Amino acid sequence: MKSALILGITGQDGAYLTRLLLEKGYAVAGTSRDAQMANLGSLAALGVADMVSLHSASLTDFRGLWQVIEKVEPQEIYNLAGQSSVGLSFEQPLETFESVAVATINILELLRLLGKPVRLYNACSTECFGNAPEPASEETPFRPRSPYAVAKAAACWAVSNYREAYGLYACSGILSNHESPLRPARFVTRKIVSTACRIAAGSGERLSLGSTNVVRDWGWAEEYVDAMWRMLQQDDPGDFVIATGKSFSLQDFTAQVFAELGLDHTEHVDTNPGLFRPSDILYSRTDPSKARELLDWQASMAMPEVVRAMIGAEREMLSAKERCI
Ligand code: NDP
C-alpha cells in the first residue's frame, strides 16, 4: 500500500486530495499546526475525517517535521499548508513568507538530508505571474504583485533549484484559482455565492465588493487535486500550470451568480474602495497545454459550471440549516 503525507490536510485541497488518494488505495496521513485543535470540518464534509492519521507539525520546525516523516514513511508528500489568502498577505507579509517560502525550503532541506526516494508536490500559484494579459505557461517569468505571490514564487524557485542541484523528485503545481463549497467565506467567490443565495432567499442585504474588473481563471478544486496526483506519477519531475485556460472578470462571475438565481446583480452590489488591494493583478490568463499533453489532464469545469456547482452546494447547505431550526 502506498503512503502519502499531506501537509495542510485540513484545507480545501487537503480534503479533496485525501478523498482521492483514499479512493486510489493510499494510506493517508496529514498535518495540521495543532492536530488536537484542528478544524476537521472539510474532511468530515467529505466523509474522510476518520480515515486519516493526523499529526501536529509546524513546517518551519525541522525536528518536528522529521519526526512526522519518520513515523509516516510516505512515498509522496503534498505540501498544501501555509497562509493562502492574497488579501491577508498584505496584512501578514512575514507570516505568509515564513509559512510558504521558509517552510518549503525546510521541507526540501529535510528531504535532501534524509536521502529517501520521496516525491514532493509543492502548491504554487498563477498569482506568481502577476499581470498576464497573454496566457502564462511554465516558461513565463514570475512578476509577483502581492506578498503571497512573492512567497509562492520563492518557494517555487526553491523547488526547481533543489530538483536541479540535488536531483530531488520535486514538482510545483502552478494552479489558478479553484473553488468548491469548502472554500472559506473570506474568499471572494464564496462570499459572492453565499451572499447572493441569502439575497435570493429574501435577506434584503447588499453585497459589497472591491475591484470587479480583475480577470481570473476559476476552476473546480476536485479536478485540480487529480492534477497534483498525476504530477507525482510522471517518470521525471517538473512544474505544471494547472488551470482551465478560460478567464473571466469578477464582474462576469458576479453577474453569472445573480443571473443563475434569477436576479440582476447591478441591483444588489456595491463597490467598496476599502476592499481594493494595495496592488492587484488585472489580468490572469493561463496556458495549461503542458498538463494536457504530459499529464492527460484537462479541466472540464470553467467559471459558469463552477458557479452552478457552488450555488447548488450553497442551497443544499441553506436548506439543511433550515431543517435544523
Ligand atoms: P487552505 O487555506 O484551505 O488550507 C491551507 C492549510 O494550511 C490550512 O488548512 C491550515 O491548516 C494551514 N495554514 C493556514 N494558515 C497557515 C499559516 N499561517 N501557517 C501554516 N499553516 C497554515 O488552502 P487551499 O486548500 O485552498 O490551498 C492549498 C494550497 O494551494 C495553499 O498553499 C494555497 O496557497 C495553494 N493554492 C490554492 C489555490 C486555490 O485557489 N485554492 C490556488 C493556487 C494555490 P491548519 O490550520 O490545520 O494548520
Keywords:
single chain, 325 residues, alpha/beta, Rossmann fold, UDP-galactose 4-epimerase, domain 1, 2 domains, seven-stranded parallel beta sheet, 11 helices, 43% helix, globular, binds NADPH dihydro-nicotinamide-adenine-dinucleotide phosphate
Number of domains: 2
Molecular shape:
globular
Give the helix proportion (percent range): 40-55%
> Going across the major beta sheet, what is the strand order?
3-2-1-4-5-7-12
Give, in order, the helices and strands: EHEHEHEHHEEHEEHEEEHEEHEEHH
Give the full name of the CATH homologous superfamily of the largest domain. NAD(P)-binding Rossmann-like Domain
Structural class: alpha/beta
CATH class of the largest domain: Alpha Beta
**Span between termini:** 44 Å
Q: CATH topology of the largest domain, anyone?
A: Rossmann fold
CATH architecture of the largest domain: 3-Layer(aba) Sandwich
Rg over C-alpha atoms, rounded to the nearest angstrom? 19 Å
